Amino acid sequence: MELDIQCEELSPSRWAELLTTMKSCKTIRLDDCNLSSSNCEDLSSIINTNPSLTELKLNNNELGDAGVEYLCKGLLTPGCSLQKLWLQNCNLTSASCETLRSVLSAQPSLTELHVGDNRLGTAGVKVLCQGMMNPSCKLQKLQLEYCELTADIVEALNAALQSKPTLRELSLSNNTLGDTAVKQLCQGLVEASCNLELLHLENCGITSDSCMEISAVLRNKSSLMDLSVGDNKIGDSGLALLCQGLMHPSCKIQKLWLWDCDLTSASCKDLSRLISTKETLTEISLIDNNLRDSGMEMLCQALKDPKSKLQELWVRECGLTTACCKAVSSALSTNKHLKVLHIGENKLGDAGVELLCEGLMHPNCNIQSLWLGNCDLTAGCCATLATAMATKQCLTELDLSYNPLDDEGIRKICEALRKPSCNVQQLILYDILWSSEVDDELRALEESKPEVKIIS
């Protein structure tokens, strides 16, 4: 049994009703429910008396250190079988870390701990690392984003990594680490016995200086499948170093996020080689990099290589124009694996989308999700888009937000949605102006086809 409630003010009577339900739940999710430490006292009792409870998610509540202390009393009881604990943005400080350390040391069932968006600080997380080093701790996933960590945390983290072969996922994004600390962390990861599968280091003050060490992790940890270094100024030179590790035969990367990394079209030669030869790679994000049309054309050539198995490509806000759309269309008509294309916030224009639709409607194309928000589109391209929607049954999600489509364009899209052959289930139309008559048509369409969700 699962209890999943979000963004609801829980009255005392409603809370009492839910407590009865929780006694038999395997999963309890209560994000954004304005919970406080007093609720945690009740939840502690639930944890203690419900041995089937394996996941507790309490993100974005004002629990505070006192609330976590209550929770941990339940977590430390012999009857507790909790595996996943989410406490993101719960107003915790370093004071909570001593209590959580006790849980990590004594509760081998706990495999996931998510405590990001809390002011734990370096001192607090050092205490958590002590708990991780206990032989009883079997932690597999640790999320520490936005925890006000500094470079001083790395020694404690490396010690924990050395003693924790079970660890699979480590997220340290949005902490002020810097190159020196990231180098030390990577050296520790190479030496550690853990089989890390996910490493997130977004917005950690990384430059090209630490990319050789990250590359070494990629070469030496064949278990690593998910790497995110977005929002770091690694530049083209840093990307070239990363690609040395990414192209190594032992690297089995599947998901690579490089958004806002100061990359230019010069990086696209290396990226193209990666896309065309690394058959494990299924998702890459290059959002907010100045790739330009020339860079995109190189990427499209790589997508046409039979060895490319890429399923998701994110190139939003990359300085693209109509000029690259013929190449994108050709790639869509050739690559059978690509399912998600985020190409919004580029100046594609109606002419560019007309070209894209040619590739989209090719029998080889298997696109499921297409994002074209803020692409300078007008009603002029909507007839072609409508044809693609009605004929391409694999297409289930379409984003046309922030384009001046007006009544004429929206009506053409609605005509496509009404057709039985159209399989679009989610249509995203943020910040588009239309008349009250068209609004009525959209509402009527949702009523007649409840499987269609129109988000505006």
From TrEMBL:
InterPro entries: Leu-rich_rpt (IPR001611), LRR_dom_sf (IPR032675), LRR_RI_cap (IPR041302), NLRP_innate_immun_reg (IPR050637)
UniProt-listed Gene3D superfamilies: Ribonuclease Inhibitor
GO cellular component: a single term: cytoplasm
Compartment(s) where it occurs, according to its Swiss-Prot or TrEMBL record: Cytoplasm; Nucleus
Subcellular location, principal: cytoplasm
SMART domains membership: LRR_RI (SM00368)
Record-given protein name: Ribonuclease inhibitor
Organism: Donacobius atricapilla
